[in-house]
Amino acid sequence: MRTRCHAWTGRSLVVAGALAVAGYAAPVAAQEADRPERPAAQLYHAYCSLCHGERGDGRSRAQASLVPPTRDFTAPGAALDLTRERMIAAVREGCPGTAMAAWGTQLSLAEIEAVVDYIREHFMRPVAGQAAATDAC
Question: In 3-state terms, the chain is what percent helix, strand and coil (to 5)?
Answer without folding.
Answer: 55, 0, 45
